[in-house]
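Notes, p. 3: input format for complexes.
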Amino acid sequence: MAFPQRVFSGVQPSGNLHLGNFLGAIVKFVALQDHYDCIYCVVDLHAITVWQDPNELPRATREVTAAFLACGIDPKKHIIFNQSQVAEHAELAWVFNCIARIGWLNRMTQFKEKAGKDRENASVGLLVYPNLMAADILAYRATHVPVGEDQKQHLELSRDIAQKFNNDYAASIAAHGFGKAFFPQPEPLIQGPATRVMSLRDGSKKMSKSDASDYSRINLTDDADTIAQKVRKARTDPEPLPSEEKGLDKRPEADNLVGIYAALAERSKADVLKEFGGGQFSTFKTALADLAVAKLGPIGAEMKKLVQDPAHIDSVLGDGSQRAQAIAAETMKAVKDIVGLVHR
Ligand code: ATP
Ligand code: MG
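Output follows (344 residues plus magnesium ion):
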């Protein structure tokens, strides 16, 4: 069965937004607006799966919203909102807690990484995080989900949940007039040269909001000097840059910086290496710093301006939440019928 095409994705208000979030996710969000109906969510319920200071969380939520707006997402044509204002996310997540299997969740690498050694002490929310993510997407029966590479496994779990729901309740789905399948299989959109931006300090770790070292990432709100300094200090190896892409194999730091340059310049890595191959890192780093400042500077400035007016941001989120809820409530009503939950 063909489902109407719709895009959904989310970003957590769990710290400073960085170049990985920008290139892996937000740049794609912006591009998809021209071709799809899009719903972009500040996923605050995901953020609290690890401790968030209640005095800080509202600021972080507004800052992610400001980034969406500053990067050019249109909140009138599309929907921007924060997750906790639409209770259907949590409600559908409960149903999915009863669909997903414990074994599926135990295999999730993000849980293993974030829980660390003391797994017994991780929140239950951190374990069932992917079920809430499935609910975020499927509350809108979204068909396309732009994410960074790190979220691929969670997307696969969302597809498994959709499929198991469709199978388990097949008879009831048909009986209620929804045909063969109620939920679509949401498709991940993971493309381009920067789907997994790595830490500037360690080429084996992804750039992350939660990394303790600020030098590991470029924040969207960093000023020009800070960006330049972070690029200059980024870890590299002693070899000059290769002239061809396969020369980046086993050179994670070089590969990362070339990928960042390519994504920011909207060029391929091969093309970037044609220009910089054989040259020293210092020359390339100067060009990269200039490019990053040129691309991120205006966005950071606009974000800083937007967060000065929290009432405006809150009105964008309020309006978006109402429009999102209208869709999610329809889905939830149908889910209740399908599952057999009596409702008004
Ligand atoms: P946290 O460390 O709190 O999980 P995060 O930096 O991973 O924060 P998220 O809010 O979890 O950010 O992810 C938002 C989006 O950014 C997701 O689509 C995710 O795949 C993408 N993303 C996160 N980090 C990177 C990265 N290093 N490279 C590319 N995309 C990324
Ligand atoms: Mg993350």
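The longest strand covers residues 6-11.
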